[in-house]
Design goal:
With 337 residues, the protein is α/β, with parallel strands linked by helices. The protein has 14 helices and 12 strands.
Amino acid sequence: MKKYFFFKPLNQQTGIFYFLMVLLFFSFSCNGPGGVRVIKLGHGLGVKHPVHEAMEMMASLVEEKSKGQMQVKIYPNQQLGTERELVELLQIGSLGMTKVSSATLESFAPMVQVLSLPYLFRDDAHRERVLKGEIGKQLLLASEKYWLRGLCYYDAGKRSFYTKNKPVDSPEDLRGLKIRVMESNTAMNMVKGFGGSPTPVAYGELYTALQQGIVDGAENNPPSLFTSRHYEVCKYYSINEHTAVPDVLIVSTKVWNTLDEKEKQWLQEAADESAVFQYKLWEASVEESLRELQKAGVTITYPDQSGFRESVESMYESYRINQPELYTIIEKIRNTE
């Protein structure tokens, strides 16, 4: 039986980090001047990223709906830690909210890993129906027993490979290449299936890792490639669209459980409305990012997906044999009309 571990032993460096964070954010959701409820939200994206813009809108909506009684303060650019560190801060109650890729969330809530599987969705419409339907709601709440509650999904587009020295036109082109992946077993298994060498690197450290040759490339969506300026190092973008891993806006249950029903309604409604806005914003951002990447001299190719799909079909067979409870969810997703 597969075992999951949700807390790792603290080494000295990690212990100091948590001690400082607990001191700094001892009041993760507190009453500010005039009795205002303040919730702190940290994330790793830049301020020009469309997901950050959606969270800014969410914060404005919370203040508007509450008539100033509730505020969400946002700390972008990994000011408070990496995605994994931020999730752990939510678990211990030292931070109120964060945005996390569902690929990172799977380390905390195993059921969510199904969303990281390659070529899971037939198209954008199929993905939207799944995420907005009962399966999507079930997965949002799957992390609740681990002190994390999903509020909504943000569109993180489709992920493809970008590399320094050559395009990835087929899985064979990944052989011998070190490819940055998120801290996700599913992502690592996928890159191995394609023939590459998966190398977990924090998003905020990836630019330097690419420059120094620690990795030969990475995989992400067009807006992330553009806003991170990774295109300054990687001049090949091979759009094979292997995954469509959504972002998830999550709140610590230690915060959620302190809110009254009206406050919960303000926060949930603001999150839902920001998600609708973000989906529209995302589409425009993808188009703009691709134009800007071409202007910057990035070679953009659209390889045949069939070889990539065949390379990772064994992942699904592994779930069928070894994790039938998750395979049932995968089948429900694939059969959603």
